[in-house]
Amino acid sequence: MSELGAVTGVGQAADGLIRALVDHGGRLRDVALDPRVMRQDSRALAELITEAVRGAQDDAFRKSQELLASVLGDDARNPFDLDALRGRFQAAEEAFARSLDGHADALSGFRRTDGTV
């Protein structure tokens, strides 16, 4: 799925004076600072940059989830829904048990027609 590799996320802070761009994995690709934001002290500037990067990462994650959902359906939104997985495993176990019962019945009938116990 090459579309997933092309996903990027954009985030901003300080009313758009700081912009961040990340790739589909959330890795930082670019940070743009408007010169007006340089009036901030270093601590405030660091917090604003962090806010922009986190926003970009959230945006990339949201876009990736939307892309996966369009391909995989609703299961992509929460692939680790333990209750749903538990239900699927229980259904598979029950189907397997029914299948074994059917095979056991067939073997039992085979033994009887064969004359062995």
Fold and architecture overview:
The chain has helices spanning 2-5, 42-72, 82-114, and strands at residues 8-13, 18-23, 28-33. The protein is α+β, with helices and mostly antiparallel strands and 117 residues long. It is rod-shaped, with a radius of gyration of 28 Å. The longest helix has 33 residues, at 82-114. The model has no long low-confidence stretch (mean pLDDT 83). It has two domains: 1-79, 2-Layer Sandwich (Ybab, Chain: A); 80-117. 58% of the residues lie in helices and 15% in strands.
Features:
2 domains; three-stranded antiparallel β-sheet; Ybab, Chain: A; 117 residues; alpha+beta
Distance between the termini: 57 Å
- Widest β-sheet, arrangement of strands: 1-2-3
CATH class of the largest domain: Alpha Beta
Number of strands: 3
Estimate what percentage of residues fall within beta strands. Answer: 15-25%
**What is the number of helical segments per DSSP (H or I, 4+ residues)?**
3
Shape: rod-shaped
CATH architecture of the largest domain: 2-Layer Sandwich
- The named CATH superfamily of the largest domain: Nucleoid-associated protein YbaB-like domain
What is the succession of H and E elements? HEEEHH
Structural class: alpha+beta
Residue windows where pLDDT falls under 50 for at least 5 positions: none
Q: What's the main sheet like? A: 3 strands, antiparallel
Radius of gyration (CA) equals: 28 Å
